[in-house]
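Protocol step 6 of 9: fold each sequence in the batch and record its structure tokens directly after the sequence line. For illustration, a two-sequence batch is reproduced in full.

Sequence one:
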Amino acid sequence: MIPFNKPFLTGKEAHYIYKAVYDGKLSGNGEFTKKCQKFFEDHYGFKKALMTTSCTDALEMAAILCDIKPGDEIIAPSYTFVSTVLAFVRQGARIVFCDSCKDNPNIDPDKIEALITDRTKVIVPVHYAGVACDMDKIMDIANRHNLLVVEDAAQSIDSYYKGKALGSIGHLGCFSFHETKNIIAGEGGLLTINDERFIRRSEIIWEKGTNRSEFFRGEVNKYGWVDTGSSFLPSELISAFLWAQIENMDMIQTRRKEIWEQYYQGLKPLAEKGNIQLPDIPDYATNNAHMFYIVCRNLSERSALIKYLKEHDILSVFHYLSLHKSIFYTTHQDSRPNNCQKIEMVGDELQVVGLDLPNCDHFADCLVRLPLFYELSDKEVKYILDHIHAFFEGKI
């Protein structure tokens, strides 16, 4: 079976973990945590970078820094992972979902402004597949309405918008190093702080609401509880693992981009015939080869393709379900804005009647993700391509 994902080890992960163990610093914010953070700041131009235990934790820190209070509204795409919005729901926010673009799953910036009310506090664009949203439009809207922007860049390490690293454009940015990402730590994440107003408080929230970081830098003579927070900083073992990946990131990225390009060129004939839709990379965006997906014409075709590939030992998967149709959103009034449309039974499910997000629902029904990992061989890519062609050309 060709798996959907296989974590890649550079060979140095265990060595660096061993070093962290025998240096006697395991609890976080040690040598490797600092090396990772400095790399991200120096390489991508983030004003401040803080390692976290996950991207979800980074998003939760962002929600605290944005001072979200019960009843505040945030605008986010419905086609995303639940962590994008859950971090804000935990602070009492109500979620206003925006549709995706027609050509790619990113939030449609032209539909954001109509969703803004006097309760709106934050816009959360998600750079799907590591491909940038139109950040000029989003930042312009945010600036005119005095809103904050939190980039969900979970899939976006080493990807750019008009030469600017993703995660460096909004007020805050959030990354993931989950084992399915380009560089990994098993779990692990990163919060980037690009607005100086949030730098000092971010460290306090990161350190369980204490000014411990300032104490260790000699800026205060003792530390104590000064704000809200939690245990967001990761074990030094996570950062040690990640450092081995960072050292080899160029090699990892080169191979992932080679595989992505093989898929793209190999499937282009099917796209030209109208059988599938290929990923859309706007002129302003770069491609970090986080994933390769195709979009089928309908749900039944998508299901049949996944089944056919599995029968031939290829594991492909669909991705997100529309969050505006989720059980939680439809059954928890506190998570929905006051002007939310009616909730009614549609078939066997509760749904938000009148909330029409057709592009989001199209991707939820039709998008298929293909295997993409460092050790995927050219031979295996060809095998996958041959079977996709066989499926659509009726050779099954």
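Sequence two, same batch, same settings:
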Amino acid sequence: MKVPYRNKAVVTKEKIINYLLNINNPDGKPKAVYFRSKGFNETNTGIFEKRLLNIIHTEEVEREETSLYGKKYVIKGEILAPNGDAVTIR
């Protein structure tokens, strides 16, 4: 199954900067260290956004979970990092 309403999916620049790339965010720090090591930073958030959205649009849902915010769809996909590495993310 694909993510329902995937055509309405949004990945904000703020989420990328304040969470995925923020080494000062206690929840996001491990992700930030990893993504920064692969060449992602504040100068290429648009590329990061497009690659994340591509996973949402093309990959199948692995599982559904319920969180405080509603349904969460877990997807696994691969993106090309700025340093040339293929990065598998979930």
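Proceed to step 7 once all outputs are recorded. Observation for sequence two: Residues 39 and 82 are 5 Å apart (CA to CA).
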